[in-house]
Design a protein that fits this description.
By secondary structure, the protein is of the alpha/beta class. 38% of the residues lie in helices and 11% in strands. It holds the Pfam family Glyco_hydro_1.
Length: 482
């Protein structure tokens, strides 16, 4: 690898989400959000999938790790100083909607919430770290779900517009890079996180998923419009979950299934947000679920808005690839993979069953680059693992270094292929609560946080082996991955 491989202004950093690390879930006027009612533990998704899930807190039955997070709300200066010590050029984080608008539908914001993010942003700027902000990252205010029916209700477009206008106006002088919704396309597989829909409130009806997407697309374009009116230099992107998708074999039916899976899972949301219009395959995609365009509530003005205000770049997460097999009936499913598919015999898996595929990241970058010809930003990538600290609280995490090394190599190779890659922010740069399981024991970070799955511990921060390794990677702009 040569020193010139990564661009001189490449944005090395790390990524987190408000609901997974801040804690302080009812402090300074914050209202309840979706993650506040999601129980912790490996049964999290099964509990949500129950028709009895009621979007309420049941302290007598469950623990709720998101209430505490890693108490970043009171440790953010210490945490950002550690990021600066690693040499971060940027830090991707999110703003908790219910910290700014506790119920989500208020006209006036909560000043205490705005002041908190003023301090976080100022701390980043003090350390020459570029803030990269996700406006909405899996933390819809609970009131908007229980009282309005979540994103199926077009009123949420206006509520989001007010939220986006508030934070963009407040912070645009210090924050250049924004994203509108985290992993917006994940609703194809688990709509609870990005759309606030569970089986108990309509997730099993695909019409609700597609209507919610349309409403989110419109809301996203409104945010892009607001941002560019404030400052044409602001960069505001979409953010998708991307899983490179292979055919199990060369059978034409598996090849066709792979094409269709790519359209629905990887491309549909980006096609609308980047190109500014619904793709030609929309009709057939809807027909798969016995739906048609006339089933949906949309206007000519909304479609014009989508066309006029597409995103500037594509942010995406990449953790794994997936395999399509509709022909052979006896292939085993990939364990832990929420996005479906069968196991790939050529790949190893993480402790949570996510198949590890660095080459898939190179393919993802090449595919996205070829399709959209827009800048790409890898805003999540990482290995969830059980870390075992020694008596000095030191974690020797060669497995994490190996994972990241190979994925960074793949990014460099994609850049050589011609992909325009803006930056790379590994997920959970400091340990935080897992979104999929609500566990602390599924750790991603370069920094160990002394806290268990029950939310107990000293909350002290300790540098892992990967801390100094990533510091060296950034210092050499990706030239030294040893």
């Amino acid at each position: 690898m040569t020193e010139q491989q990564f661009p001189k202004n490449f944005l090395w950093g790390g990524a987190t989400a408000a609901n997974q690390l801040e804690g302080a879930y009812q402090e300074d006027g914050k209202g309840l959000s979706l993650p506040d009612v999601l129980p912790g533990g490996k049964e999290r998704m099964n509990i949500i999938a129950s028709p009895d899930f009621d979007f309420k807190i049941h302290d007598d039955k469950y623990v709720y790790p998101n209430h505490i997070g890693i108490d970043h709300y009171h440790h953010f200066k210490e945490d950002i100083a550690l990021f600066a010590e690693m040499g971060f050029k940027c830090y991707r984080f999110s703003i908790a909607w219910s910290r700014i608008f506790p119920k989500g539908d208020e006209k006036e914001p909560n000043e205490a919430g705005l002041k908190f993010y003023d301090e976080v942003i100022d701390e980043c700027v003090k350390h020459n770290i570029e803030p990269v902000i996700t406006i909405s990252h899996y933390e819809l205010p609970l009131y908007l779900i229980t009282e309005y029916g979540s994103w199926t209700n077009k009123k949420l477009i206006g509520f989001y517009e007010n939220f986006a206008r508030t934070v963009l106006t407040r912070y645009h002088d210090r924050v250049k890079y924004w994203m509108t919704f985290n992993e917006i396309n994940s609703a194809a597989h688990f709509p609870i996180m990005s759309q606030g829909l569970a089986p108990s409130n309509g997730a099993n009806d695909k019409k609700n998923i597609f209507q919610s997407w349309h409403n989110q697309f419109v809301a996203s374009s409104k945010a892009v419009k607001i941002a560019h009116e404030l400052d044409p230099e602001l960069q505001i992107g979409c953010m998708i979950l991307y899983a490179t998708t292979y055919s199990y074999d060369s059978h034409p039916e598996n090849q066709l299934a792979t094409l269709k899976a790519n359209q629905e899972s990887n491309f549909f949301c980006a096609d609308v947000q980047v190109r500014g219009h619904y793709p030609a395959y929309t009709k057939n995609l809807l027909a798969k679920y016995d739906l048609k365009v006339s089933d949906f509530d949309y206007t000519k003005e909304e479609l014009e808005l989508l066309a006029k205000h597409p995103v500037d770049y594509i942010g995406f997460s990449y953790y794994m690839s997936t395999v399509q097999d509709v022909v052979n009936e006896r292939q085993t499913s990939a364990q832990g993979n929420f996005i479906g598919g069968v196991s790939n015999p050529f790949l190893k898996s993480s402790e949570w069953g996510w198949q590890i595929d660095p080459t898939g990241l190179r393919i993802a970058l090449d595919q996205l680059s070829d399709r959209y010809e827009k800048p790409l930003f890898i805003v999540e990538n990482g290995l969830g693992a059980i870390d075992q600290p020694d008596e000095n609280h030191y974690v020797k995490d060669d497995y994490r270094i190996d994972y990241l090394r190979e994925h960074i190599k793949a990014v460099g190779e994609a850049i050589d292929d011609g992909a325009d890659v803006m930056g790379y922010t590994p997920w959970g740069c400091i340990d935080l609560v897992s979104a999929s399981t609500g566990e602390m024991s599924k750790r991603y970070g370069f920094i160990y946080v002394d806290e268990d799955d029950e939310g107990k511990g000293t909350f002290n921060r300790y540098k892992k082996q990967s801390f100094d390794w990533y510091k060296k990677v950034i210092a050499t702009n990706g030239a030294d991955l040893s």
